[in-house]
Amino acid sequence: MFGKRSTGANPPQALTVKAAASAPGLAHTLDQTGGRDPRRSPPPPVPVETPRSDEYYQMKSMIFGALIEAIDLSQLAKLDGESAREEIRDIINEIISLKNVVLSIAEQEELLDDICNDVLGYGPLEPLLARDDIADIMVNGATRTFIEVAGKITLTNIRFRDNAQLMNICQRIVSQVGRRVDESSPICDARLADGSRVNVIAPPLAIDGPALTIRKFKKDKLTLDQLVRFGAISPPGAEILKIIGKVRCNIVISGGTGSGKTTLLNCLTNYIDLDERVITCEDAAELQLQQPHVVRLETRPPNIEGTGAVTMRDLVKNCLRMRPERIIVGEVRGPEAFDLLQAMNTGHDGSMGTLHANTPRECLSRIESMITMGGFSLPSKTLREMICSSVDVIIQAQRLRDGSRRITHITEVMGMEGEVIITQDLMTYEILGEDAAGRLTGRHRATGIGRPRFWERARYYGEEQRLAAAIDMLERQGEADAA
């Protein structure tokens, strides 16, 4: 399948992009931890790979150029990933032999893997994408790559040949979902084939080279029971969340960046009945619903002429014409908040969404401000009445200063008193201190509310006894912790 290419072919850099776009990529893993307890002192840089010298990159460039001259990319694109990798390894071994390159077996294997990753995968990112303990990958130009492990950010030894190689990989990633990133369109949201969320911001906006951020999620979807083991929620608190999801409460999950909002949303979707029609709306599709009747929708940026954009509001409005039973919005960040409230208030019970806010009270204010900024000239009292009649429960997630993640509030929206929205907490998280290793210690405690507002809803679904038992267990656990 290999043969000398004719003269006048594209330069190696363009061919690398072409090969990667046509050949199958490797499967990557996902990660979003739910509350590990890291050490306070920052760990040293993670030696993901041995630092490489300029001589290594010169040798790799020479062998890579010879490979591109020898390889038939059209034939390579017809092979599956493993077969293509074996073919590339064979030809590289021949090149090393012909050019009398002296390498140890370990060095040769490292070089083979490195070049295969460049041609078929995402280059230096491959070792990071293969690790399941990494939550975020942050590339700040060609020479500095950071990762988040167990809630702590550390510098790695990963580096790219130059900013051009990094830009090629960014273009390769976004092109696979029909998007583009270049000087005329320097900001792009995309996703990997496995659903990992990707953001790219390129020069001239990024001064020191392209900035690539990848939010990874666990390959195996987390459950509320696992969040209990991580300490993110107490067992009775998790039971209450299961009931809230089961009885079709309208839920808003609030939290800061990296607090675990999407992970928690994924967990709650486990309690949607299998016969319900669910429609998801996301900027980059990353939710992992397991139900058989799911329609996944994704926004679209404008094309090169500046037209053809499909916004989150367009998707949410269209949902209402698709006979949904539940609507799930990956992240509410603009005027689509109005349409989501309309959906929640017109028979689509059990709808869910996430948004950025630091407290449940701030969450309500943000919903109001997003609707106002969208150009809706409604009186404040009318807006708040709409919020009260639409949202049943706010679940607050927080990333603590030691890197752990906790569900800090389960809060009900009760109604209006004058022009003020009244809320009540079913459960809160109280920080008690920290241990010798610098890990924060705390407890989830009940607030003494005997019957939540959604009690009648729980009775309608036959869950009132289970709810009463969960609240009683939460109160008794709080008393035991206080003692």
TrEMBL record:
<comment type="similarity">
    <text>Belongs to the GSP E family.</text>
</comment>
<feature type="region of interest" description="Disordered">
    <location>
        <begin position="1"/>
        <end position="52"/>
    </location>
</feature>
<feature type="domain" description="Bacterial type II secretion system protein E">
    <location>
        <begin position="122"/>
        <end position="401"/>
    </location>
</feature>
<dbReference type="InterPro" id="IPR027417">
    <property type="entry name" value="P-loop_NTPase"/>
</dbReference>
<dbReference type="GO" id="GO:0016887">
    <property type="term" value="F:ATP hydrolysis activity"/>
</dbReference>
<dbReference type="InterPro" id="IPR050921">
    <property type="entry name" value="T4SS_GSP_E_ATPase"/>
</dbReference>
<dbReference type="InterPro" id="IPR001482">
    <property type="entry name" value="T2SS/T4SS_dom"/>
</dbReference>
<protein>
    <submittedName>
        <fullName>Pilus assembly protein CpaF</fullName>
    </submittedName>
</protein>
<dbReference type="Pfam" id="PF00437">
    <property type="entry name" value="T2SSE"/>
</dbReference>
